[in-house]
Design goal:
single chain; alpha+beta; three-stranded antiparallel β-sheet; 3 helices; 37% helix
Length: 92
């Protein structure tokens, strides 16, 4: 499993937050996706993201933050690949 830095861990925690966080920056999400999977920017500007055995094509959001549906999709992909935020007090 990927060794995540503090910034990636914070983004992962935000993605799994309930209710869905509406302030996750695209740059942060993209950095996390690159750390845990494969990201290829397509010729049309979309991003082909593979995490674990799932691949999604994502569009860069119009503003700086990702939308609720992208958060839900990333949460699913990350969980299916075995990624989840560390429980409080369990950080190693």
């Amino acid at each position: 499993m990927a060794d995540l830095n503090n910034h990636h861990s914070d983004t992962l925690t935000a993605i799994f937050q309930h209710p869905v966080s509406h302030n996750i920056r695209w740059h942060d999400a993209l950095s996390l996706m690159e750390a845990v999977g494969t990201v290829v920017e397509e010729h049309d500007g979309k991003f082909k993201v593979t995490i674990g055995d799932e691949t999604e094509v994502l569009s860069r959001p119009h503003d700086k933050t990702i939308g609720e549906q992208m958060v839900v999709d990333l949460r699913r992909m990350l969980a299916n690949a075995g990624f989840e935020p560390a429980a409080p007090g369990k950080e190693d």
